[in-house]
Amino acid sequence: MEILDGKKVSNQIKEELAVEVAQMKARGEKVPHLAAVLVGNDGASLTYVGSKVRSCEKIGFESTLIHLPEETTEEELLKQVENLNKNTDIDGYIVQLPLPKHIDEQKVLMAVDPDKDVDGFHPANFGKMALDMESFIPATPFGIMELLRRYNIDTEGKHAVVIGRSHIVGRPISILLSQKGKAANATVTLTHSRTKDLKAITVQADIIISALGVPNFLKEDMVKEGVVVIDVGITRVPDETRKRGYYITGDVDFENVSKKASHITPVPGGVGPMTIAMLLKNTLLARERHNASNA
Ligand SMILES: Nc1nc2c(c(=O)[nH]1)N[C@@H](CN(C=O)c1ccc(C(=O)N[C@@H](CCC(=O)O)C(=O)O)cc1)CN2
Question: Which residues form the Tetrahydrofolate dehydrogenase/cyclohydrolase catalytic domain (predicted)?
Fold first, then answer.
């Protein structure tokens, strides 16, 4: 069994990006600039946005954090989005999800300029991705594909079972895995809360992508020998005996499923860090596309 070490691979990607940025600087070019909008003080979101900004600093990107109060209205947030769309210094930006309940997430994501949509959540980018056209690919599924590629995991003709149909992970990864091309060509089953007899499907899977957010959901008896398991679920379980007051766990019963798996991602240290690395990669792509369109 081999652990798919997302932490290690994400650090490699960040080192590669740092080299590219240094080369851009040496050529006298503008470096990529990522902005992040965070509304409210959700603990996990603060961690993720903080990590995005710190990663930018580490590799030589410019970054801007716009931290708005929980009470921010939809109109005020849309104004910020409009300003970011107009700001020619910003190459790409993200609006951290989830947003407070009083804000219509879809309306905000629709307002993002698709050319700056480094999260790949705008319908223009999502549609292009589904049509195999050049686009921004959402960072988590992009990270999963990159992890499979860097560990030389062959997906060609394999049965990939995706658990969860979210717009951020389940739906896009099912599209990417089923695409034509060297790193895809899988036969995909997208399962969800209404799927009947899930176990009958998961036991047939060569690759399982679990993106449910239910701790210990995927058990040993639900997988076959040699399966590749990608655990996207990240749940913070309250635990006062820990320094942070919680521990992090995935969807997979790691201890037992790993006995049968050929490859498996840990939580933490699997898909999560890849998400940040691929967001940075998208921001570099945005910068390069802006350079090309200004040339
Ligand atoms: N605008 C966006 N919002 C959200 C996205 C996204 O891609 N764009 N994805 C998730 C959150 N997310 C990035 O934003 C993210 C989640 C997890 C990690 C990560 O590195 N996790 C660590 C554990 C860290 C911890 O929780 O303390 C790990 O798995 O090792 C990074 C980014 C939802 N929102």
Answer: 4-119
